[in-house]
Amino acid sequence: MSAGTDEAVRATEPAEVSAARPSLAARAAAVAGSGAMRVFLVVIALFWLMPTVGLLLSSLRDPSDIAATGWWKVLTEPSQITFESYGKLLETEAITDSLVNTVMITLPATVLVVVIGSLAGYAFAWMEFPGRDWWFLGVVGLLVVPVQVALLPIAELFGDIGLFGSISSVVLFHVAFGLPFAIFLLRNFFAEIPRELLEAARLDGAGELRLFTRVVMPLGGPAIAALGIFQFLWVWNDMLIALVFAKPENQPITVALQTQVRQFGNNVDVLGPGAFISMIIPLVVFFAFQRQFVSGVMAGAVK
Predict the structure, then answer these.
(1) What is the mean pLDDT of residues 233-258?
(2) Rounded distance between C-alpha atoms, residue 253 and residue 282, angstroms
(3) How far apart are the first and last CA of the chain?
(4) What does residue 165 show for φ and ψ, rounded to 5 degrees?
């Protein structure tokens, strides 16, 4: 074998070794898939769910039992379980009305952010218009504006136009502060769509609206689902914005529960079921769409 051939073989050896060596992500996946790691993750999940289980069991106990022993007593005395607290909850108008208000605030705030953010993200990613990059930098700059800074100015604005205290004012505030993140997230995701795919659709006669609905939206499904979950959880669990902008008759369940604690500190037979319902609905939404959520979060890493 000639010297030139030996040098060529040595030059290709590092590349072959590098290609055969598993990547960091592959090694991490192998460790995560091991039996010991699975047991560890199961233990962590059980500890994470323990407060939820404890709240559920407490909501199924009589107030006298709650005052006497801890919730774990139900595991040895199942006879303590009763649904009387949930019946009393349905008879408490303040809680039931606040739950309806929470739905009326959360759904529009989530849908509007997803729809407007998708349209704006597509425009910033694939449409040409004057000052596009500067407008996008302005949107990114809005991500660092704290919610607390805008509470008083927007409250005065809503008061001047007659919206202060209504459900619409809470929805508009959530939409305004949810859009910068939505536009930033979806614009970066839509920008990864191959240009050739969009150009082929345009050659077939697709306009911008049809291109957006038939091509971009299906491909952006994981990112849109992740955004929807983020927005839903943020709005559902919010108390600060509703506490400032909503009148008592328009307050969501987070504020209603806080009011019950302040006025009726020993009203645990209502607070327990109300707190559990307030917590379990976001959990159900998250677990129902967890695959789309993980796909949306990991989409940028696998492209």
Answers:
(1) 88
(2) 13
(3) 43
(4) 95, -10
